Predict the structure.
Amino acid sequence: MDIERPLSANERIKEKSNLLRGTIADGLTHVETGALADDDTQLTKFHGFYQQDDRDLRAERGKQRMEKAFSFMVRMRVPAGIVTPAQWLAIEKLALERANGTIRLTTRETVQFHGILKGNLRSLMQGLDDVQLDTIAACGDVNRNVIATADPWRRDLHAQVSSLAREISAHLLPRTRAWHEIWLGEEKVSGGVLEDEPILGRTYLPRKFKIGIAIPPQNDVDVFAQDLGFIAILERGHIVGYNVTAGGGMGMTHGEPETYPRNADVIGYCDRDDAVAVAEAVVTVQRDHGDRSNRKHARLKYTIDTLGLEHFVALVNERLAVKLAPPRPFVFESTGDRRGWAEDKDGTAHFTLFVENGRIHDLPHRRMMTGLHRIAELDVGRFVMTANQNIVIADIPKSLRKVVEQLLAEHGLDDAQGGLRRNAMACVALPTCGLALAESERYLPELITRLEAELDRYGLLQTDITIRMTGCPNGCARPYVSEIGLVGRTPGVYNLYLGGAHEGVRLNKLYRRDVDGDGIVAALSPLFAAYAEQRKRNERFGDFVVRAGFVAETKTGLDFHENLSPDLRT
Ligand code: SRM
Ligand code: SF4
C-alpha cells in the first residue's frame, strides 16, 4: 500500500508563490537588510539568482554580531552559450559596475555574476534585457540552460544544434510573466488573463532539470551527465536525428549511498523534427512521476531507477506521436574542447581561449578581461562559451585573424597549457558557494602545478588527462565522469576518484578517502609512473587504471558505491 508522504517545503513555497512572484518585489524595497525573505530565496532561483554571503567574512561578522555579508549570484540563460560581441561588452560592463568585477563562465555554457548587492539586482537584469539576454529559469526546479557542443568549426552542424538548443529552451520556459514584472516593471497580468504553466505545471518540476546536445565525436557537454541528452546522428555530414539519453546526474551526499551519481541510459532515437516533442514528453513524465517529498530523491535519475527503465520509456512513448526508434551507433572521443586556432575552408578562423576554471578577470600576466574587451570591440564574429568553462572566439574573418592574434599575445592570452591543466575544471566553491566543504576554484591551479611536476618526470606533461575538482559532493564540475575526480570533504581534504573515461562514458570510483594535497600527489605519482611505463598505444589514463586493476569499472549509478568497504561509504 502506498503511504502518502508530505510534500517538501519547497513544493509549498512554489504552490503559494503566485507563479514565482512571492514577495520578491517587496523584499527589494527593504533597505535595512541585504537579504530577502527566506521563502523568496527559493523563488529567486527561478529568476536566475541565489542569495549568498561571503564565507571568508562569516566568522568575523558573526563575532561582531553583524548581519552576514549578503550578496547575490546571478546566472544568465544562454542556450548553446553563444553571445555577440556587443552582448559581451554589456556583460563586462555589468560585471564591473554591478558585480564583483569578474565574469565567471560556468560548466553549462553561461555566465555567472557574483557579489551583487540587493540594490543592484534590478539594474543588472535591465542591463541584460537591453541586449536581449535574460536569467529566466537559469536556476530553480525547471529546465536549466540548454547546452550544445561548442563547435563553430563544423559550421552547419553547430548551427543546427544551437538552434535546437534555443528551440527546446524557449519551449520549456516558464510562461509566468513574473520575471518581466519584477525586473522590468512590466504591468501586472490582471483582469481576465489567466496565466498558466501548460508544460511545467503550477508547481513546476520536482527538481532541477538539465539538457545537453552533443555532436560526436565530441562529448564536451558530458551528455551522460544530463537528465536528458541528444546525441546527433550524422549521415553524409548532416544531422538526420538524435539518440536520446535520459537519467544522468552527478549530485550525491557523503555518507548517504542512496544518493549517487548516475550516467544516463540511451533510450532510443528520434528524428530531428521530433526532438522538441521528446524533450516535452520526458519533462512531463518527470513532472508527473518525480518525487515531490524528498528533494534528495527528486532528480530524473531516481525517478527512472524507481520506475524501472522500461516502464519509464513506455511512459515517454505514450506521450509521443512518433515513438522512439532503436538507438543508432555513435562514437565519442573526448570531453575536451578543441585547442588553439582552427580555420574553415574559406579562412574564417576560431580560437579556443583557455580560461582557468572559467574565471575572467585581469591578472598582471594574463589580462583576460581587457583582452576580450579589445577583441569584442572589433565587433566581428561571436563568443561561444563551452561546457569546459572556456570560450571560443569564433567566426573571425580571415582579414582580422592577425589582429586578434596580436591582441591575444599583447594580453598574455596565447600561452599553451599542459595536458592536465587544459583538461581541468573546478567548481566555484569558496567563498561564495553556501554548500562548499572545501576550496575548489581557488585551489586546483596550484595542485595542478604540483601534479605537472610529477607528470613531467614521466614524460606525460602534454598527455590529455581530465581532472575535475568540486568543493562538495554535489558535482558541479562533473567530477564523477572524469579520469581523476576530487571531491571536497572538509577544508583541505578530498576524496580521490579514478577511472572515468576520457570521453565521458563511464563513472569513476573512489580510490582514496580523505587525502590532502600531499596525499593526492603521493597517490597519483606512482600511477603516472605505471601509466607511462605500461600503457598500451593510445590508451587513456582512465582506461589504464581500470585495466591495470587500480579501480573496478563502474557501470551504473547503482553500483557506484558497490566496491566500497562499509567504512568507505561515509
Ligand atoms: Fe551546481 C548547486 C554552481 C553546474 C550540481 N551549483 C549549486 C550552487 C548554486 C550552490 C547552492 O545551491 O547554493 C552553486 C553556486 C556556486 C557559486 O557561488 O557560484 C553551483 N553549478 C555551479 C556552477 C557555477 C559550477 C561552475 O563552477 O561552473 C555551474 C553552473 C551551471 C549553470 O550555468 O547552470 C554548476 N551543478 C552543475 C552541474 C554540472 C552540469 O549541470 O552539467 C551539476 C551536476 C549535474 C547535475 O545537476 O546532476 C551541478 N549544483 C549541483 C547540485 C546537486 C544537484 C543534485 O542533484 O543533487 C547542487 C545542490 C542542489 O541542487 O541541491 C548545486
Ligand atoms: Fe558549491 Fe558543491 Fe557546486 Fe562546488 S560542487 S559549486 S562546492 S555546490
About this structure: DSSP finds 16 helices and 22 strands in the chain. The radius of gyration is 23 Å. Residues 50, 52, 73, 75, 106-108, 110, 112, 144-145, 208, 210, 225, 249-251, 299, 358, 389, 427-428, 432-435, 474-478 surround siroheme (ligand 1) (CB under 6 Å).
